[in-house]
Amino acid sequence: MTPAQTTRALTTDGSPNYVLDVKKILAGMAEPRLAYQPVVDLDRGVVVGYEALARFGSGHRTPGAWFAAADGIGRLAELESLLLQQALDSRTALPPDCWLSINVSPKLLLGGPVWSTLTAAGDLTGVVLELTEHQHVDNLSRLRRRLDTVREAGGLLALDDVGAGWSGLRQVVELRPEIVKIDRSLVARLHEDPARMAVAELLSAFTERVGGALLAEGVEQLDELSTLLSLDVHLGQGYLLGRPQFGWAQVPPEAATMLATRSRAERQVGSLVVAVPAAPNVAAVGFLADHLPDVALLVDSSHAVESMWLRNTAGTGPSGWTRPVTSIPTATTLRAALCRGMERPERYRLDPLICTQPDGSVAGVVTIDALVTALV
Length: 376
What we know:
Blueprint: H1 3-9, H2 18-26, E1 33-41, E2 46-55, H3 64-72, H4 76-89, E3 99-104, H5 113-120, E4 127-131, H6 140-152, E5 156-162, H7 169-175, E6 179-182, H8 184-187, H9 194-209, E7 213-216, H10 222-230, E8 235-236, H11 253-266, E9 278-279, H12 282-285, E10 295-299, E11 305-311, E12 320-323, E13 327-329, H13 334-342, E14 353-356, E15 362-366, H14 368-375
Parallel strand pairs: 2-3, 3-4, 4-5, 5-6, 6-7, 7-8, 9-10, 13-14
Antiparallel strand pairs: 1-2, 1-8, 10-11, 11-12, 14-15
Helix pairs in contact: 1-3, 2-3, 3-4, 4-5, 10-11, 13-14
């Protein structure tokens, strides 16, 4: 059904007159509302952005019929411009460290009231323009120049529904969006379909290769979320992660618990490193400080670590043991570090792990107790 046919169908037989509604809105006699759906950083389990979504009528319904009516009478650009201005004005209430995603039809960026509203806004820092229309855009080079202007003003670009309609790999390559939104049809039942998993994995790698981040839309099940985490998809949006609200929603408890558990496991050991003293030999350990340390590193003349000294905490004197060392990079995840520790012979299994910086220098040690505590 075309937009014009939709408009005619909705204005007969007592059905809602969406054309009249649109005219009232554009005349200032009625006003749509904006709902905001959170976008979640899946690595940290926190909201990093919100998508502004138009809602119309007393029931605050989704905008499809109103957009179709506006398109049918040639006033879609005016309606989108009004909603764009409303979203831009709402930035003053946006929570800290969050961006606002605003839907825009790409063709309307090429000129007219939408482009005028956008340029009049000045600073677009914290604004993500989300291109939504599932129609071919003939003049991609002109659109790219428009988007360059948006970026110069501080704005970013998201490409919606990649994998369906107009948004495809060519558009990703040509427009280089900062955020690529994988279509919800590819996210639904993701965990049950190896083909969907392969597409998500491919899009994630491809998007990162061209300098963007993949955002999974329509996440509604914990199994879908778990699969996205295993595929290293970094951003998510959907009912499981927060429904659209007339306010600033946070991550629901069930999803927050899964993300927090995963986040703890993926943290790096650098966050748990404790500095310990170094000594040239066991005899020198007793002179390191007023109180005998629990752990000391025994180093050679070039300060390379040869072994580790552990104090006998059960004894009363300054006794201890010399132990072999196990070194891991500070970038090692908590889970991987604990596994590495448990792989050692039983008598050394609970010894601290030495953590090294990227340049090879020693940052300190991390204890098995600290790893277990951080993971539970």
